[in-house]
Write a structure and sequence with these properties.
By secondary structure, the protein is mostly beta strands. 2% of the residues lie in helices and 53% in strands.
């Protein structure tokens, strides 16, 4: 399992537990004492379940809906995880990283396997010779057994189970055309370390997006697109920022319905400490996040995107891996969602504005009026081969982190050329077979020593200028293998 990667956009449910021991005794005159003692329930601890993706070049988006989950302990007993409603997560944008799915409490002990039921999956992909994505929906339930090669040994502290969907092994080509989907997960087990240096696999989560539902004192609760909620505690070191025309200097500026992007660390007791909060849009607004698949012929007028995350009014989980139409307003703001990562040393020529926006970039579009169900072609499967689910007018656009894979060539002290595979969804979508990758002082190499011809995965920010794509890498690693 690879260590910390960006991204992100995301989702979680927190279930708390209580332990009660009741000792009842009774006596009566002239008779011996008699007593009844209840058996205390097993002591429990929180388990954060993350999901992510080991990438497949040809897949643009892959959204899965989890309707059931269970763990099996060393005694062979199956423990069901309560899921009040199905949870949908898009995984392709989590290339090499993970995001929260749910956090149940389980009885202390050893667990050797898991089981997941996927009620549906939606895959958007590129076909050679076409510049439009094709979409395929798998609606038959799929139950997947996931052996834990490293058992989950649960004591009193929080643990983390990471589930990487191996897209390359899960998606195939059907004999009559289209795709097959046989979900294959690669699990790993980590301890929640509770420090600021924690990776996502250890509970150090970045860019968790949602709407504020409650805020009081130093704590707030945020509802996510998937229907779950997460509670956070802010402290004296929590950084507050504003984006898309918003401003935030502290908890006093937080309001119900506001869209936030939060970086937080899971503590050993199962609570979340907040590292940073970015105000993205006010109450009543919406913010889809996704890959741009087409741009208007008029620079800065609008684009089509395939959603991989988001939040806000009218934004639904069913939009994930489907098309959305974005019209750009007259007073647009542009920015880069750095999520607390330093981009010092980035070439000054790399900018993001209305004339430097292009297909293949991962962006967040923020609008004050929410999503509209009357977007162009909404709900209709057109000749383009995908479902257009709605539209919105954006007042702000933020460039978001994303991942690319390829092989290394033309190495210099400051970067290299990333050569993309012929079936790369990015290459087919953009027509670009190469991307210039730049290293900066803060780039994390994760033990990687670059060599020519090596297959690598980069995470960071994609820029576009006059037909050329460049990439500022904040993370690098060897391409994961099954």
């Amino acid at each position: 399992m690879q260590q910390s990667k960006r991204k992100i956009l995301a989702t979680s449910m927190v279930l708390f537990f209580a332990v009660a021991v009741v000792d009842l005794t009774g006596c009566s005159s002239g008779s011996s004492n008699s007593g009844t003692t209840t058996t205390p329930p097993a002591v429990s601890a929180p388990v954060l379940v993350n999901m992510g993706d080991t990438p497949s070049d040809g897949v643009l988006e892959c959204a899965v809906t989890i309707s059931a989950m269970s763990f099996t302990n060393s005694a062979g007993t199956t423990v069901t995880v309560p899921i009040s409603s199905p949870m949908t997560m898009e995984l392709a944008h989590l290339a090499g990283t993970v995001a929260p799915l749910t956090m149940p409490s389980l009885a202390q002990g050893t667990y050797n396997s898991m089981s997941l039921t996927l009620s549906s999956a939606t895959i958007s992909y590129m076909v050679s010779g076409s510049t439009n994505p094709t979409q395929q929906v798998f609606s038959s339930p799929m139950t997947v057994s996931v052996p834990l090669s490293t058992p989950l040994t649960l004591g009193s502290d929080a643990m983390v189970v990471n589930l990487d969907l191996n897209l390359a092994a899960s998606v195939g080509t059907a004999s009559g055309g289209g795709l097959t989907f046989t979900p294959t997960f690669m699990p790993s087990v980590e301890t929640a370390v509770g420090t600021s240096s924690a990776t996502p696999e250890q509970g150090g989560m970045m860019q968790i997006v949602g709407n504020v539902s409650t805020a009081s004192g130093s704590t707030f609760t945020m509802d996510t697109l998937q229907g779950g909620s997460m509670s956070f505690t802010a402290g004296s070191s929590t950084q507050f920022t504003g984006m898309n025309g918003q401003s935030m200097t502290g908890m006093s500026m937080m309001s119900n319905g506001q869209i936030l992007s939060v970086n937080a660390t899971l503590q050993t007791n199962g609570t979340w400490n907040t590292n940073s909060v970015a105000a993205m849009m006010g109450s009543g607004g919406a913010m889809p996040i996704g890959i741009i698949t087409a741009t208007s012929s008029t620079p800065g007028a609008g684009f089509t995107m395939f959603a991989n995350s988001g939040s806000g009014t009218g934004m639904m989980a069913s939009y994930l891996a489907s098309g959305l139409t974005v019209t750009m307003g007259s007073d647009m703001t542009y920015g880069i969602d750095t999520a607390g990562v330093s981009l010092d040393g980035m070439p000054s020529s790399m900018v993001f504005d209305g004339t430097h926006i292009a297909k293949g970039q991962n962006v967040a579009a923020a609008g004050s009026e929410g999503m509209s169900a009357s977007g162009s072609g909404m709900g209709m499967m057109g000749s383009s081969g995908f479902m257009n689910m709605g539209g919105m007018t954006a007042s702000g656009i933020e460039l978001e982190p994303q991942g690319l894979t390829g092989t290394v060539s033309n190495m210099t002290s400051g970067g290299f050329t990333l050569n993309l595979a012929a079936d790369s969804a990015f290459a087919i979508l953009t027509g670009s077979a190469t991307v210039n990758v730049y290293q900066i002082p803060s780039t994390q190499m994760n033990g990687l020593t670059l060599t020519s011809g090596q297959s690598v995965q980069v995470n960071g920010y994609l820029f576009y200028d006059a037909g050329t794509y460049s990439f500022v890498a904040t993370q690098m690693m060897a391409t994961p293998t099954a």
